[in-house]
Amino acid sequence: MKEKCRLGVLVSGTGTNLQAILDATEAKDYPAEVAIVISNVAGAPALERAKKKGIPTAVIPHALYETRGEFERDIAVQMENHKVDLVILAGFMRVLTPFFIRLFPNRIMNIHPALLPAFPGTHAIERAWKEKLPVTGVTVHFVDEGTDTGPILLQEEVPIEPGISLERLEAKIHEVEHRLYPKAIRLFAEGKLEKPERSH
Ligand code: GRF
């Protein structure tokens, strides 16, 4: 049988996207597996989700490091030790520097709760909602050296119905995220995303 694509997942918080990925990997024919989950926050609920499934975890607290380079070097060492093929950002609240990004060219994926290039950065759902746009959505993209600027891999629209509450819109966006991220990882693992054409 073909070897599975090994994922190294970086988290900081709740980890509902991590959960969706862990659930997807339960299917025998899913072509990827989670090799390690790393959090920069001790006690992040995401770590418990990994432990429940017997997945190795590590806590690398950024505050203990003098430089971002040293912090990222320790993350990279863990990725190397666990033979990671693809780095997955799943609610990881640190910006990665070019040092780390160049170690994994087109091998770091992120999910963003808006239709990039619209609403990069933080509070993307709320910003779209406040503008009363007819539609927002979810984007999975490779990470490059900008903020949410890397090649787009998959997008799905989510309508903003008139009068919808922010909480309801957030819930709808997260539902889509939990479907789209495992799908993008599957496509990568099947070799269907290696040469993304589109960038913005
Ligand atoms: C998601 O909304 C994702 O789009 C953003 O961070 C959030 C992480 O949520 N990048 P969770 O920790 O996966 O629940």
Structure description:
By secondary structure, the chain is an alpha/beta fold. Helix content is 34%, strand content 22%. The protein has a 7-stranded mixed β-sheet, with helices on both faces. Helix 1 (16-24) links the parallel strand 1 (5-11) and strand 2 (32-39). Helix 1 (16-24) runs parallel beside helix 6. The longest helix has 24 residues, at 166-189. The mean pLDDT is 95. The protein binds 5-O-phosphono-beta-D-ribofuranosylamine (GRF).
Helix-strand pattern: EHEHEHEHEHEEH
Gap from first CA to last CA: 37 Å
Helical fraction? 25-40%
- Rg estimate, integer Å: 16 Å
Structural class label: alpha/beta
How does the major sheet shape up?
Answer: 7 strands, mixed
**What's the β-strand tally?**
7
List strands and helices in order, with pairings.
Layout: E1 5-11, H1 16-24, E2 32-39, H2 45-52, E3 57-59, H3 68-81, E4 86-89, H4 98-103, E5 108-112, H5 124-130, E6 135-142, E7 152-159, H6 166-189
Parallel strand pairs: 1-2, 1-4, 2-3, 4-5
Antiparallel strand pairs: 5-6, 6-7
Helix pairs in contact: 1-6
Tags for this model:
200 residues, alpha/beta, seven-stranded mixed beta sheet, 6 helices, 7 strands, 22% strand, binds 5-O-phosphono-beta-D-ribofuranosylamine
